[in-house]
Each structure stands twice: as structure tokens, then as C-alpha cells.
Amino acid sequence: MLVFGDETRNYFLVIGQAVDDVRLAQNMAQVNDVILSPNCWQLCDRSMIEIERIPDQRAVKVNFLKPPPSFNFDEFFTKCMAFMDYYPSGDHKNLLRLACMLESDPELELSLQKYVMESILKQIDDKQLRGYLSELRPVTVMFVNLMFKDQDKAEVIGSAIQDACVHINSVLRVFQGQINKVFMFDKGCSFLCVFGFPGEKAPDEITHALESAVDIFDFCSQVHKIRTVSIGVTSGIVFCGIVGHSVRHEYTVIGQKVNIAARMMMYYPGIVTCDSVTYNGSNLPAYFFKELPKKVMKGVADSGPVYQCLGLNEKVMFGMAYLICNRNERYPLLGREEEIKYFMCTMKKFLMSNCSQVLMYEGISGYGKSQILVEIEYLAQGENHRTIAIVLTKISFNQNFYTIQILMANVLGLDTCKHYKERQTNLQNKVKSLLDEKFHCLLNDIFHVQFPISREVSKMSTMRKQKQLEALFMKILEQTVKEQRIIFIIDEGQFIDSASWTFMEKLIRSVPIFIIMSLSPFVNTPCAAASAIMKNRNTTYVTLGPVQPKDILNKVCLDLSVKGIPKELDTYLAEGSCGIPFYCEELLKNLDHHRVLVFQAMESEEKTNVTWNNLFKNFAKPTEDLKTFTFSLEEENEEVCNLASGVRLKNLSPPASLKEISLVQLDSMSLSHQMLVRCAAIIGLTFTTELLFEILPCWDMKMMINALATLVESNIFDCFQNGKELRMALEKNAASFEVNYRSLSLKPLIEGMDHGEEEQLRELESEVIQCHIIRFCSPVMQKTAYELWLKDQKKAMHLKCACFLEENAHRCEPCRSGDFVPFHHFAVDIRLNTLDLDTIRKMAKSHGFRTEEEITFSRIETSKKSEIFSENLSSEEIREKILSFFDNIITKMKMSEDNVIPLESCQCEEILEIVIMPLAHHFLALEENNKALYYFLELVSAYLVLGDNYMAYLYLNEGERLLKILKKDKSWSKTFEWATFFTLKGQVCFNMGQMVLAKKMLRKALKFLNRIFPYNLISLFLQTRVEKNRHFHYVNQNQQAQESSPPGKKRLAQLYQQTTCFSLLWQIYSLNFFFHYKYYCHLAALMQVNTALETQDDFQIIKAYLDYSLYQHLAGYQDVWFKYEVMAMKQIFNLPLKREGVEIMTYVADRLGYIKLLMGQLDLAIDLGSRAHKMWSLLRNPNKHYLVLCWLCKSLFLKNRYKQLIQVLGWLWDLSVAEDHIFSRAFFYFICLDIMLYSGFVYRPFEECLQFIHQNEDNRLLKFQSGMLLGLYSCIAIWYARLQEWNSFHVFSNRAKNLVSRRTPTALYCISISRYMEGQVLYLQKQIEEQSENAQDAGVDLLKNLENLVAQNTTGPVFYPRLYHLMAYVCILMGEGQNCDLFLNTALQFCETQGNVLEKCWLNMSKEWWYSNSELTGDQWLQTLLNLPSWEKVVSGKVNIQDIQKNKFLMRVNILDNPF
Question: CA-CA to 1175 of 20 to 30 Å: which in 685, 987, 1073, 1319?
């Protein structure tokens, strides 16, 4: 046995003939072979073994055993087990390692610790659990093989191994590598060295491994007892962990990359070799390597290219140090406008003054520093100044005076010389007047020339030579700047050597020069000269921030030469890259490598046949800023990038280059912090401190908070108090900023700096305690840390997370903690944790179940209050009673001490992001598909509540994938999940205005719910008869129904889904013009009411009554709609004043206000809306509150109640800011545009409204919602049409046109479509004015479309005045004066009935204008716009409120023969 090593590590080797024999036998063995060495075969009982001779070998191969008939196995086994007597018995019988019984001996322990790797000792000292020591991680493996001249003599090879081991250890220690094991391999000794063990990952690992390999090779080759040195280096993913039995194991690396390194070492003897991954990952110049011929290596299928590493000495190659990035005029510098401004300002100072300027850009690798310098080099070019741009490498730092050497070579024009004689001639001409000829030889080494060496120079010391050179260079530069200004541009400035820093520091004090450099943050403290330059008063030091998400999108579209990418890909790249261009490029390369990206021609939205798969053609497109830059593709071959079918971007592993960066950062942390990050990675990108604490092994809260604070400070995590803060942080990246090191250095040093840092950490800890939401700063870090876990470890951790999250997987407390899909838990039992009685009661209460006492109380209340509406009351008296009832409720809500008013606003969105979504992914990781499906459906339902149709669509596709898998499992049968799936699908299609698809999905859902909706007229009329009888029974037997027990929980889940389906179906059928569809519409509305009555749930019944009332309203049945409104009111009068009851009352006020607006009862709509606003604000439900404010704004707008309108708009704006609510902000700007277009004053300027649209038109909440963007685009189109700026009009009109097909029966769509039609009418006027050929046909089509809108059931009467106004204008343009008069009068009648002051005023002006003979100037609207007063002038009294009503657009009449 050989023992060797140094003062820190020891190793041992077992050598000898037996070891050599078994190695030789091993080389002869194939798979499943047993080979006996000659000595082993000699010692065996040959009669019991059948062998096969191996040609030319003394070793033999065993075929099988042949025990004799007399063989006694028990006797044989007893003999074999005789050695067990050596081990203890009794209480210690399970101990197989006698060393465990030894008493503690610190001296012996210290001695034995030398045989254990340092990284493992650290983890043991840090009390890391053994189960967490193993992981999969990328490392660099280096095998070193030493072949000796005299292999047989242990005393000879022992000293050689000792010398080699000491040197290898010293080299590896510098670069954080370690010797994992040493063993005799074939005819030599092999060292398995590893770079990148857990906790030991370092930047430039591969480069360091190659540098170490070359150093070790050079040293060992000089040891005279060593004949041959062979080294193989590979990089890749390996298993790092514990291998062996629980009582005898070791920590090592296993994997294909380990095998390849070992084989390369043996098959390419006498050189340093590496694989292609190492070659590419080193980022070293190609001249450091040489590709070798491929060899077939045992056990390696395909190793890929193999390279010989020739050495790592930097060559001075003049002319090769320029910036290698070429500026592309068709590829702009994206997102770096502010950084270029810093250059322009500094450049201006430099040109105007006679002093030096230094501009330094600091940013981590990948921030695009080189691209900034390339752009600066282009911008800096001019007649009176010269730019010299160079790039440094890692090796440059170790080359003394290298940076100045390259800069001066460029100044002297040596970079273009092809031969040393040419350089020598140039130098003589340049320096002859500045330097004596005998000193020319000083330039030999630095410029690679061959001047004769003089006696004076040969006697000079190195220091004196350096000073002479520096003085010469200073003179040359002084002379050069007199002729032209010099700008030095240096990329990778952190690699400037200290001698060059010193020279530059003197230079900027002596010579007016402009130095621009980019650099990564210094790893160590910079030298004194570098610090002095940074602190110089003329230095501008800019710390680069990441680029913004919109710039990442622009970059991707330019890189791929496409006009758009999927929104999913845009989000993946924006989040994954963290705004770092290099990260974005690597992610794109990785996607391309995995064939994820598919390129296809851009399809016209009009021509596309809508299916579920293309329902959301969500392509993110470049911003307007890129319009000046053309794409490489021809216009007719415009392409978009799409994702390959079935691709899930979240499941893709990050590229190796980015994982390397993350691992370096991870391993720089303490072991406990690494454990925290790894555990957090299991939870997901975003997590809560409560869940993290739950899964951390053996941690206390104080320890976790301290670790989190440190990691937040290190930019591993961000912390947020709530979901709103998180969403706002994700929208925008941090910007670049200037650091003034001079000011920082002038500040007095604070005594007790350590104390100050501790105080700062304590403040951060308190901040972390307040912020319960934590998020990884980089998704790549999360994914990298996640992939370190082994499969079984991942499953155990996912299960822990799922068990913890399941308890909170429901709506928030203000929303009464129910399921997002009503009664979902009762219909589908998938819970991991068993439910206790209290939990069941709480869930039942959240869904509206009541105790016997509550039911009894409700019945008593019913008998008391049911007579509140007597038959003799008039409609006005009923109205007053209703309003006074709501006023009374508001008063009681304010005075209530019970839990009627929630203590906080709705938190459902936060629960969605930090509970439901992670839970679905945890179950996916656990391969519990039925549970994952359950939470995906919950997720979809939650997103629909929040109005996010796109995310609902994405997760429905996830659910569909799981349903297809579960369908194959015959043991799984959940018709309710299928029904829920199709119901949610129908809701998404409905919200997107795709009614044919929606109807198909809803019918499928009803089929799964055993409630088939009729397909033909016969079954339609039969079903209608049945439902009418049911309805008569429910309404007339109401008291008996209340006394009967409510349906079971599973039945209620089905009934809730049915009411949803019927509610959507009647609205879908109401959009169709076919005569018989009105019967389907009526049946669906009736079935909704009957199903709601069957539930015996107050909210469902009231909602169904109000829906049925609206249906009857729109159908024109006066008596019926009034009856059901009264029935709904009677129902809420019977409710107790509890949280649920108050929410139902608020919903009724809200819904009635909306219905009254649609029907044109504006005064009542305002009264009800203002009360609903007060109630929702008290209930703190922003998702409901904003809608009330929107419709209240609309009612006040039509009534010309400007002061109240502006007040409500202020509330809407405050709500949008407080809740970061994009829809309420969009409606705010919609009303602002309406005010300018129709009310005659300005509340927010047009430019602000337009900017909002440009910034948010790609927002998924607006983009995939029916009506809002249509309205905004149409308003802008009207604006430009009135100004007769037709190019701009067409841009926005075409965008609006693409959204017209999303037809939904909502007030918002009706408002928006009327605006769109107004734009088309104005364009018709232009066509008639220009006497366009198709003007007549366009006018007829337009009039027909307007008539259809009026005739459509879903268009409420409130929109009739505007539509009739437009129809009158089309008629007068077409010369149909009689119809024009008819439509004008009809519109005026509606205005009079509804109290629509806004439209009435405009109609009267139009009527007066059209009947007059006055002529309208072309710029009339422009003049009106210039004189539009602001609201501040109106409210201050400077402008009369009556005067602003005259600021209306007068529609031009171009008919020569005026019929009037």
C-alpha cells in the first residue's frame, strides 16, 4: 500500500501483482463475462468450474459451476460465514464496521479527515443531511494518467506519484478543482480530478481546467521517473454523490462524460485532449487547439470531435485585436438609448474642452457591452478625431503592458504591417525624432521587431526599460493629439493588466484623450491606478441595467427575421433572459437546437377559419420603433415564428452556458444557502415563506429569514408584500444608472463598517418578514437548482409541497373560501389530506349551505317581508322602495360590527398565482394526472373570473392533454370533469365572440351533465312545454320547495354548471337573426331559471330572474320583465344581513343598474349604479367595483352630468392605480376620448390616450377581450377621420375591423361597434366626396349593417339614438332625404324618452346644419380641437358649461343637389 499526499490531503494506493493481474483480467472481460487471473485460477478447485481458455493468455473465462454430487451447501455456507465471528454479537450485532465502536479521538479524526474531500467535509460540518449530498450537475472531468519507466518497483513509482500528487493538488487548489480518487489503471497511475463539485463551481471553469491540464502535463513530463503523461478533459452532466452500501460508500462522479475522459486519456497517450463541449465552452482562440483523428474507443458509442490542447499562451497578433462585432445598419442597437446619451454628452464635453474624458460601462457578461461599443465606435467617427477600438481576452490580464502595447501598435499604424521588417521601417520613421537610435531596440519585444541591441540598453534594468518606453509612448501620444483627437475604445476592460492601468492613469492627467471602455464587475479589488481612474472627476461610470421586455421582443423578431412570435415564447424569453441579450440569444439557440421553432407564412386574420386551436393567434409583434428598419424577407413572404406542436416551454432545460453561470453563483453561497435555494426551486419560480419553511429540513424560522435576507441582498431572490407588487415588478426591468465613485470616496468612512452592514441586514430581515411572497430573480437559476435534485428526491419534495398547499387551494376569505368551480371538491374527491368535520362545515358554508337555525330564521324573515310589494303600488313607488332599501342596506353596512364588511380586498389573484398554479404543477411532477387536472380546471375558472381569457385558454389546453391521457385509464371515469372542461371551453369561446364554437362546447357540457339541449324544432317545442310546466310548479309551490331539503352536494355541482351553460346559450341564440332561434333563446333562458330554482340557492335564483328579465326586456315583453325584476327584489328582501346576503344585494343593485342603462332608463341607472358603487367599495371587491364605475360613467356621460362624471372618472382612475387594473384604466381612456369627441372639452389629452393604446395594445387582458380595444381603435380612427388624416385612419380602422367579428351580447361591444360604424360612415362621406366607384354600394351595405344592429335583440335601446343618427347621415349622403328625416325624428324621440342629453344636442345641431345652406370649411374640426378647453377651465368658470356643448363635430354633406 502506498500512502502519499501533502499537508491538506492524503491518498492511498494498493499496488502489487494481484492488482496488476485483476486489471489485465478486467481488460479481457466483455459484458456478463467472469475472468479469472492466472493466480486465481491456480488457487481454485478446478473440478467444480467449467472454463474456456483465452488464446495467448494464462487467464481463463468461467462458463459455469459444476458442484460434485457429494457437495453439501450448508457445510460450505458455514465455512464461508466463519469470518463473521470476528464481528460483535448481542446489542451490537448490527454493526458491521468495528470502527464505529471506537472512542472519540480528535487526533485520529483529524488524520482520517485528510482522506476525505474538502467539499464533503464542509457539508458534513454544515450538518447537511446525507440524502441531500447527491445531485446531477455539470462538471469538468480531468483524468491524468502517469506511465512509469520502471512500473514494478514500488519505491520508484512511489516518489514519482508523491511529486505528481503534490503538484496536481497545488494547481487544482488555485482553480477550485479536487482530486476525487487515485488508482492504478492498466500500466500506470490515474488521477480523477473534478472541477465544479457542489460548492466549488467557479467562473471560467473549463478554461481553468485546460490551464491546469497544460500545467500538470508540463510538470509531470519533467519528472524523470515518469515516461508518459496523458490527460483527458471532458465537460457535461454527471452524477455527483454517494455510491456504495450504507456501511461502505464513497463520494464520486459517475456518467458518460467520466467514461469518455478516461478513454481519451488512454487512446490518445502523451498529449492533453478534450471533447467538443470543452473546446466550445472554453471560448479560447482556435489556435490553442488541434482537431485529432477519431478513434473507436471501448464503451463509447460516439464521443464527437476530439481536440488536442496545444497550450494557453496569448499570441500578439497585430490587427487581430479589433472589436469583432460588425455594426449592421439594418440591426439597430435595441433598448440602449439612455446609454448612448451618456456617450453623446461625454463626447460633447471632450470636444469642447481640452481635458481628458473617461466613460466606463460596467455590466455582467451578456449585457451587450460590446454592441454598445460598436455603436459608439460608429458614432464617434469624425474628420478631426481618430477612434481605436480593441477587445481583450482572459489571457490579456497576465501579459504585462499588453493593452498599451496593442493601443500603441494601432496609433503607430503597425496593425496593417504584414512583416516585421515593415513594422521596423514604420517605427524608425515615427520615433527617430523622439528616441535616439541606440534605444530603438527597446521596442523589439513589445512590437516584435529586430533592432540591433545596443550596449546601453543591455545594461538597463527591466524597470528602467519600462520607464523609457512609457516616456516614449507619452511623447508619441502628445504629438499625435496635436494633429487629431484620439478616442480609445476598450472592450472587456476588466482584463487590462496593472501596468497598462498605471500608464493610462498618467496619460489622462497629461494628454487630452477620450477613453471609453466596457468591463464586467471586478472579481477582486481593482489596482490603485484603476481605482484612481474610476474616481477621477472626468470619469463617467455607468452601471448597465437589463433591457426592457419590448426590446427583447424586437431583438427576437430581428434575429429570426419574422414579423411576430407567439406570446408564450415572448413571455418565456422576456422572463428567462431577465433582460440580458446574451441570455436571450442562448435561449433562442437552445430552442432551435431542440427544433421547437417553426416558421410559417403570416395568415390574414380575415381569411382564417376559426377553430379552438387557432382561437388565440397570439403573436407578439415588434414595436412601432422598428418600423424604420426593414426585415430581410420580402413583403409577400412575410413569416411568423410559431412553436412546434405539443411543446411546453416550461419543461425545457436551460442551455448549458446559462446553467454554468447559475451554478457558479449557486456554489459561491454557503452550503445552507444552497440548500435553501434548491428547496425553493422545487416549489417554483414564485413561492411563499410559509411553504418554504414547511419543506426546509431541520430549519428554524430565524435561520430561514436570515438566509432569505442575505439571498435577497445577493439578487438571488426578490421579495414582495403582495401580488400587485410582484406583477408591477415583472412589467419593467431596472434601468441603467450612473455611479459617482469620486463622491463615494470623499464621504467620511463610517466607524464600525461591520456594524453598519449588520444593521442593513437586520433592516432587510424585517422587510423579508413583511413580504411573504418570494420570487427567483432568474428563472434559469430556479431551473438549474431544480435539476440538481435526483428523481426520488424531487417526488418527495413535491409531495410535501402539495400536502401543504392543498389546505389553501380555494378562494380568498373575503370571497368566502369556496372552490373556483362551484362545489368542485364535493363532486370530485381528489384530496391528499383527509377532511375533518370543521373543514367540511367551513367549505359547506362557503358554498351557501345553512344550518337548521339559519333556515328557520330565513323562513321567519320570509313570512315577515314577503308582502313588501303590494299589487296596488305604482312603478314609481316601487322604484322609491327599491332605492330606499339599498340606502338602508348601505347605512347598516357602515354601522355593522359583524363580519359583513371584509377586512381586506379580494386576494383571489394572489392565491391563483402562489397556490393553485403551483399545486397543479406539483401534481404533474408527481404524475398524479387526475389531481393535476382538477387544479388546472380550478385555475381556468379563476382566470375567467379575473377576465384573463388567454391564460384560461392555455391551461384548458393543459387540461385537455391530461384528459386524453386519463381517457386511456379505464379505472378513471369523471364525467363531471369532462362537463366542467367543456363548460369552461364554452365560456372562453363566448368571451372571444366565437359563438358557433361556444354553442358546440356548451351543448357537449350539457350532454355530460345529463341535460341535453334540443337540436330540432320538434324536440324544442316538446322541451319548452315541459320546462313551462316545471316553471309553473316551482313558482307556485315556492313555499313547499323552501321546506324541502336542498339537493345533495354533487347534484348542486352539476346544477351550477347547468345554469352557467343555459345563461350563455340564451345570449348566444339572441345574437342570431333566424326566426326560430328566438324559441331556442327563450327555452335556454327558461331552463336557466328552472335549474336555479332547483338549487334553492338565493344567488342562483336571483341571477336567473334578472337574466330572464333582461331577455324579456330585449325581446320587448314589458309585463314579464317587470314581474321578474320584482321577484328578484322580493328574494333579496328575504335575505339576512350577513356577508353572503349583502353581496347578493350588491349584485342586484349592480345588475339592475346595468339593465337600466341598456334599456335607456338613464336616471334609474345612475341611481342604482351610485348605490352599487358604494356597496362594492365597502365590500372591497375591485373586480366587481370597476364595472359599476364604468357603466356609471357611461350613464353620466349621456346625461351631460359633467361634474359627477369627472368625479366618477377620478374614482375609476384611483382604482386602476391602486389595483394595477388594466381594464379600468382602458375604460378610463375610452371615456376621455369620448369626452373630447362628443362633450367638447379635454380631461386627458389625445396624446396621452394614444400613448396608452400603443403601450398596452399587446396586453393579453385587453387583446383577448371583446369590445375594449375595438372601442379604443375606433375612437382614434374617428379622430383622424374628422381631421381627414386618412392614412392614420386606415391604420386604426383596420385594427378595429379585425376585432369586429368578436361579437358578444354586451354593452361594451355595442358601444364599440357603434363607434366603429361611425368611422365607416365618415369614410363613406370621403368616398362620396371623391366620387369613388363603389361609394353607392358601400353606402347600401353600411345602411344595411346599421339597420341590422338596431334590429338585433342584444342591442339595447340606449344605443338606438346614435345608430339612427348615423343612418340619417348615410341617407342624406345617399340623397334619401325622406328616410333621413324619419331616422332623425326617431332618434330624437328615443333621446327624449331616455333623457339622452348628449345625443339630443348633437342631433339638433346636425338637423339644423343639414337643413341650412351654410358651407363647412375643411379644417372646422381642427379649429374646434385647438379651442377645446380643459376641464380645469370649465370647473373654474372660465368657460361656460353651455358653450362647450357647441364644440361638436358637424358631419359634412357632399350632395350637390340638396333635397331640402
Answer: 987
Q: pTM for this one?
A: 0.82
**How many CB atoms within 10 Å of residue 1432?**
12
The predicted model gives 1352-1365 an average pLDDT of 86
The residue written with cell numbers 393543459 in the block is 958
Phi, psi (5° rounding) for residue 146? -115, 120
pLDDT digits (tens, 9 = 90+) for 1038-1086: 555 555 677 888 899 999 999 999 999 999 998 876 777 888 999 999 9
Q: Do residues 1196 and 1205 touch, judged by C-beta distance below 8 A?
A: yes
Cβ neighbours for 600, distance < 8 A, ≥ 6 positions apart: 639, 640, 642
pLDDT at 443: 78
Q: What is the dihedral of CA 1362, 1364, 1365, 1370, to 10 degrees?
A: 130
The one-character DSSP state at 913 is I
Q: How far apart are CA 551 and CA 548, in angstroms?
A: 5
Nearest to 980 by CA among 801, 852, 826: 826
Quickly list DSSP for 965-990.
Answer: HHHT-TT---HHHHHHHHHHHHHHHH
3-class SS of residue 142 = strand
CA distances from 719 to 77, 916, 1202 (A): 64, 20, 43
Which of 1378-1385's residues contact partners 24+ apart within 8 Å by CB, and which partners? 1380/1410
- Nine-digit cell string for 976: 363531471
865: pLDDT strictly greater than 60: no
Quote the crossing angle between the two packed helices 549-560 and 581-593, to the nearest 10°.
40
The three cell numbers locating residue 1417? 370649411
Per the CB < 8 A criterion, the answer to whether 1148 and 1129 are in contact is: yes
pLDDT of residue 172 exceeding 70, the answer is yes
The C-alpha atoms of residue 312 and residue 175 are separated, in whole angstroms, by 15
pLDDT at 1170: 94
Q: Concatenate the DSSP letters of all residues of 861-877 into one string.
A: HHHHHTTSS-TT--HHH
Lookup: cell for 668: 459561491
3-state secondary structure 792-851: HHHHHHHHHHHHHHHCCCCCCHHHCCCCCCCCHHHHCCCCCCCCCHHHHHHHHHHCCCCC
The answer to whether the CB of 1235 falls within 8 A of the CB of 1208 is no
**Those residues with Cβ within 8 angstroms of residue 191's Cβ, 6 or more apart along the chain or in another chain:** 143, 144, 145, 146, 164, 165, 168, 179, 181, 182
- Three cell numbers, residue 392: 481583450
Beta strand extents in 656-707 (DSSP E only): 686-688
Give dist(CA 1296, CA 1277) in Å, integer: 9
What are the φ/ψ torsions at residue 799 (nearest 5 degrees)? -65, -40
Residue with cell 335583440: 1353
Please report where in the chains the cell 516518489 appears, as a residue. 159
Tell me the average pLDDT of the chain: 84
- Which is more confident, 830 or 571? 571
What is the percent of the chain where pLDDT is above 90?
33
170 vs 321, 397, 1286, 1399, CA distance in Å? 33, 21, 77, 89
What DSSP state is assigned to residue 605?
Answer: T
Do the Cβ atoms of 1011 and 1058 come closer than 8 Å?
yes
d(CA 1185, CA 1221): 11
Q: Give 525's pLDDT tier (boundaries 50, 70, 90).
A: confident
Q: Which of 612, 568, 551 minimizes the C-alpha distance to 736?
A: 551
1221-1245 burial code (b ≥16 CB/10 A, e <16): bbbbbbbbbbbbbbbbbbbbbbbbe
Asked whether residue 1190 carries a pLDDT value surpassing 90, the answer given is: yes
Nearest to 194 by CA among 232, 160, 226: 232
SS3 at position 269: coil
